[in-house]
Design brief:
207 residues, mainly beta, eight-stranded antiparallel barrel
C-alpha cells in the first residue's frame, strides 16, 4: 500500500493458496516485481459516520511504503505503509487539528501509523486478501485488507502502471481512539467503525 509518489514501495509475495493460485490470470503473473506508489494518482483515505446521519471523509497526504508483487505466487505477501498522521486532511482545518490532537491520533507522541503485512492470498479472479498488523498510538492489532486488481497499462510516458483498490473496516476504540460525545436522541457523534480505503496507482520500479 502506500505506494506512489515520493517514491514509496510495497511488497507482495504469495505462497501457494492452492487452486486459487493455479487459476491466476497470466496478466497477473506478468506483474511480478517491485512497484512504487504514484502518490499524485493514489489516495490513502478513510470514512466515518458523523452524528449518525452523514459520512465524513479524509485522507493522509504524507506516507511511505514498500511493495513487491509476486503474481505467480500470491500467498506470501508483504507490504509496509508508514503514514504521518499529522498530514490528515478532511477539508476542515478545525477538525483536522482535533484529529491530530490528544483526543485522537495524538501526533506529538505518536507521529506515525504503520501497516505491515504478514500474509496474502489469492481469493479468485482479481481479488486478494492481505492480512497484516496495524499500529496506531503504539497499539498493534491484526487487520484483513480486501484488495482488488483493477488492471495494468503502459502509459504515454513509458511507465507500466497497475491499479488496486483496498478496503477494510476497523473499530477505532481497539487502538485507543475512544473519544466521543453522546447524542440526546441516542447514539454518538463519531462512529467507532472506520472504513479505510486504499486507491493505488503503482508504477513498476526500475531500481
Amino acid at each position: 500500500m502506500g505506494i506512489f509518489s515520493r517514491r514509496q514501495t510495497a511488497t507482495v509475495e504469495t505462497a501457494h493458496a492452492g487452486t486459487a493460485d493455479d487459476a491466476l490470470d497470466p496478466a497477473l503473473r506478468a506483474l511480478t516485481g517491485p512497484w512504487t506508489i504514484d502518490r499524485p494518482h493514489s489516495r490513502i483515505g478513510f470514512s466515518v459516520r458523523h452524528a449518525m446521519v452523514t459520512t465524513v471523509r479524509g485522507a493522509f497526504a504524507d506516507y511511505e511504503s514498500s511493495l513487491y508483487f509476486d503474481g505467480a505466487r500470491p500467498a506470501a505477501s508483504r507490504a509496509e505503509l508508514v503514514i504521518r498522521v499529522g498530514s490528515v486532511d478532511t477539508g476542515v482545518e478545525q477538525r483536522d487539528a482535533h484529529l491530530v490532537g490528544a483526543d485522537f491520533f495524538d501526533a506529538r507522541r505518536y507521529p506515525e501509523m504503520v501497516f505491515r503485512s504478514t500474509s496474502a492470498r489469492h481469493e479468485g479472479g482479481q481479488s486478494f486478501r492481505m492480512t497484516g498488523d496495524l499500529t496506531i498510538r503504539d497499539v498493534t492489532r491484526p487487520v484483513d485488507l480486501q484488495l482488488d486488481y483493477l488492471g495494468s497499462v503502459l502509459d504515454p510516458f513509458g511507465y507500466e502502471r497497475a491499479g488496486f483498490d483496498g478496503t477494510t473496516t476497523i473499530d477505532r476504540t481497539e487502538w485507543g481512539l475512544v473519544y466521543n460525545q453522546r447524542l440526546k436522541a441516542g447514539g454518538t457523534m463519531v462512529s467507532e467503525r472506520v472504513r479505510l480505503q486504499f486507491d493505488i496507482s503503482a508504477v513498476r520500479s526500475t531500481s
